[in-house]
TrEMBL record:
Principal location class: cytoplasm
Domain Deacetylase sirtuin-type residue range list: 1-229
Record organism: Mesorhizobium hungaricum
Cofactor: Zn(2+)
Gene name for this UniProt entry: cobB
Binding sites annotated in the UniProt record for Zn(2+): 117, 120, 136, 139
Listed PANTHER family: NAD-DEPENDENT PROTEIN DEACYLASE, NAD-DEPENDENT PROTEIN DEACYLASE SIRTUIN-5, MITOCHONDRIAL-RELATED
Localization in the cell: Cytoplasm
Protein's UniProt name: NAD-dependent protein deacylase
Amino acid sequence: MPAYKSIVILTGAGISAESGVDTFRDKDGIWSKVDYRDVATPEGFVRDAARVHDFYNQRRRGMKGVRPNAAHTALARLEREFSGAFLLVTQNIDDLHERAGSASLVHMHGELGKALCQACEQSSPWEKDMSVLSQCPACGSIGYLRPDVVWFGEMPYQMERIGTALAQCDLFVSIGTSGNVYPAAGFVGEARFSGARTVELNLEPSDGHSSFDEAILGKATEIVPAFVE
Ligand code: BJW
């Protein structure tokens, strides 16, 4: 990518699909099986914390068997070889980007491998199952832990850092996201406003496809390595 000085990449569930991680809004996706209001809102957690813990415990256990794929690896290689400014923003709560070697990375919707304490507000690494009786490793309180993920109605992480990068980028690439969820779905507009070239890499045209300069359609493991070459 020698022509560019500053790149922002946004990824969504589609980049991890071929690693065996479920997407949300595809035909057999997560939201076809569970109601997001029950498991991905603060109100759902207040209503039935045990159910929400069960949902994320299952997904955390599922992560143990999955591996980064060629698309994750290609983005890590791009970051290593690119000499300008680079920021990878993922909506995914899996850790496949870091396991592939990405370092300049923002998990804007949080991380499945972390617990957030609602008593002391500390985030701590968390690998095992979580329950309403789990103890915070930071302050020792019992009964205040939740998965450190961003639910509907909550503020995504590091928005200021992302906004600064979008205001400076000259290439914005969106990979494997349906463009349904804000504020991520609005990043293409911010990048366009900055004068960046905007490219979508996805299995099918996303909701916001008309906002992109260019679309490359196909499987992430094929089109991402080809784009990065
Ligand atoms: C492949 C493939 C393959 C498949 N290869 N591709 C207007 C402005 C601002 C906010 C709002 C607004 N209108 C409404 C809102 C509120 C709300 C929202 O967006 N609601 C919409 C439903 C309308 N947003 C929020 O509440 C957010 N917070 C917020 O807005 O705070 C205020 C604020 C405003 C302005 C600035 C700053 C702050 C929080 C949203 C939190 C979302 N949380 C979840 C759950 C996280 C934890 C968990 O994982 O359980 O995040 S919901 C879920 O959706 C998850 C995902 O990260 C997110 C996006 O999904 P994604 O990644 O796009 O997956 P899919 O399944 O939708 O798409 C996959 C795509 O891949 C498809 O297109 C496939 O074709 C493709 N694909 N296989 C390539 N092999």
